[in-house]
Amino acid sequence: MNNEESIILANRQHGKYFMRFLNVLPASLSSHDTTRVTIAYFAVSGLDVLGSISTMSLELQNRIIQWIYRLQVHPDKDTGDMSVCGFQGSSTVNIDFNSRNKLYRCGHLAMTYTGLCILLALGDDLSRVNRKAIIEGVKALQTEEGNFAATLSGCESDMRFVYCAACISYILNDWSGFNIKSATDYIIKSIGYDYGIAQCPELESHGGTTFCALATLSLTNQLDQLSEAQIEGLKRWLLLRQIDGFQGRPNKPVDTCYSFWVGASLKILNALHLSDYANNRSYVYETQDIVVGGFSKWPDTCTDPMHTYLGLAGLSLIGESGLFEIVPTLNISKRAHEHLKTLHEQWASS
Amino acid sequence: MSDCGDSDAGWIFYKDRPDWNDIKPVPEDDGITPVVVIAHSEKFEDVYDYFRAILQKDEKSQRALELTKDAVELNSANYTVWQYRRELLKELGTDLRSELDYVESVIKISPKNYQVWHHRRVLVEWLQDPSQELDLTAEALLHDPKNYHAWQHRQWAIKSFRLYDKEIEFVDSLLSDDVRNNSAWNQRYFVHNNHTGWSDMNVQREICYTLEKIKFVKNNESAWNYLRGILLHDKRGINGNGVVTAFCEELYKNRCRSPFLLAFIIDVCEEAIKKNETNGFHNVERAKELCTALATKYDKIREKYWMYLRDRFEMYVCVNGENSQ
Ligand SMILES: [Zn+2]
User: What EC number(s) does this enzyme carry (chain B) (predicted)?
Assistant: First the structure.
């Protein structure tokens, strides 16, 4: 098909796009002030998927690694308490506190997860990660319900942070801070009557939270806890999300990011091959800005780093040439995952 | 969020305020190798320099409370600011009703922000007063009937304080505005599952309601999913309810070929096969035929899926040695 072949990946522009976000952002992005690590993750992991990590100067790679490590919250010097350990998303409250209000300087599960992903993509050996402390920090955030809050400092708890906690535990190869049984119960309770999975029990099924749930079940080896009806129901619910690209919920508009969230969910269930790659692909490309780089959620709208990364990751899942393979559960490149495996071997033998 | 620039007339930087000159601002320390640097406005930096200072000092004062408001206005996603604000509210004994009004005004500006809804929830828990929550969320849903945050807050309030009484009417009105509103269908299920219950009579009533909606718009996944959901509570299962199966065959006879109808009949066939209750309408051959029709004509984008399903029915024949009638 002619028009299909004429679609080109603006590889070079996307690389530049991510480099700009690693550099300086305009004041209009001030609302992302506490989550800068996630922007760095989209950029670094995006460069990784583009096969462009090697085009970053070593100086820049080291700067990023130093910056991430500065955001690590260490155990309390006096008491040894580790409940606030993890990574912060920025240095907005990266200040010294006396013991009374030290809770304000605490790790955040999404920042710990994406921070670790950045370190892995850049080939860091995680030797400066206080693994024990981070796992204690994860442990402190699991609720009675089985889900996780993001931080100890006044935060909602839901499926997103179950996923982040599972990724952290997998990366650090230590599940002692993650009660698999109660997390699995929570996930199964969050399956809806339509077989999609929601942010919490009884809420509406959602493509993003379905991904978080399935990836967690996969990382914890619990996919066999789903019944055949649930697995087949999930496959259908996920495949019905495809219009040309994918939507996140029934009767909602298509959005580039769901080519990853739904695509990766299908991949985890070994059912991605049942979707229509050509339509998926051409939708994602409709949201590509070939001039300045980046992808947006809808055609002809503003690009952002998240949709740019997830657009590329979604394309990678369907085998787009020129892109590195993605590990759907962890949402990092296979290359980064291979690096992680060697670290796990080193830890096991030491 | 609107531009929080330095243009607001009359704004005085904290560093220029005499009543703050006892505080030494604490600038952000991003180290010597910062990346993803946001070029904040001067106002942003000023407010947050003072926020860090009071946080570090752990100052619990009225002026600190006012400062958190400015910090929220510049970034309502900063969960530390909200958390500190809650500490201040407790410590200062501030009137929480006025705080409800305040957070409502922030929700109106940022209705898709996790932190504001969390703040709201904590306040309602403290006050043990959910009396405004249905109106607040109804208002948010008026602007965006599928706002996930608003639905989550609404379900939480309804569940925690047993506010089910008028919820079905609310759902009805949303569904008459937009019968494709999947969030509203989900809420309908929520109400029945927790409140009305699944008595036979209620199940039948819900089935009739749903079939009416499907008659009105046939190609509506949300309604078909809901129908399957209610039938989970019908002892006769998805293939045993005569009203439903007759309705489907009638639609089919009248040339409706909505993929959701065909998929539903396929599911009826599957259950009939599993329960050894196949008949002239619901059997392996019919299921395979419908899978082929979907794959080749009515739902081509999922061609591979429908062929996959067709193969599964092929396997039933092998396993059960069953023939169609
Ligand atoms: Zn999106």
Answer: 2.5.1.58, 2.5.1.59
Short-list B71, B81, B162, B154, CA closest to B119:
B81
Q: What is the pLDDT of residue A7?
A: 86
Query: To which H or E segment does residue A348 belong?
Result: helix A334-349
A21-48 pLDDT, tens digit each: 999 999 999 999 999 999 999 999 999 9
Work out the mean pLDDT of chain A and round it to a whole number: 96
Check CB contact under 8 Å for B37 and A63: no
pLDDT value at residue B2: 43
Per-residue model confidence as pLDDT tens digits over A332-341:
999 999 999 9
Question: Tell me: the pLDDT tens digits for B52-85?
Answer: 999 999 999 999 999 999 999 999 999 999 999 9
Q: A290: distance to nearest CA of chain B, Å?
A: 23
List CB contacts of B320: < 8 A, sequence separation 6 or more.
B273
Which of A203, A252, A271 comes nearest B152 by C-beta?
A203
Chain A CB contacts of B301 under 8 Å are 242-244, 276, 279
Q: What is the ipTM, given to two decimal places? A: 0.96
CA distance B83 to B115: 9
Could you tell me the two tokens for B167? 């919820």
A106-129 per-position pLDDT tens digit: 999 999 999 999 999 999 999 999
Cα of A298 from ligand 1 centre, angstroms:
9
Per-residue CA distances from B315 to B279, B288, B311 (Å): 19, 11, 6
- Stretch (H or E) spanning A73: strand A72-73
Residues 6+ apart with CB under 8 A from A80: none
pTM: 0.96
Separation between Cα atoms, residue B253 and residue B92, nearest integer Å: 70
> What are the C-alpha distances in Å from B194 to residues A232, B130, B147?
26, 18, 22
Q: Is the dihedral of CA A274, A279, A284, A288 positive or negative?
A: positive
Tokens representing B74? 């510049």
Residues of B that are catalytic: 112
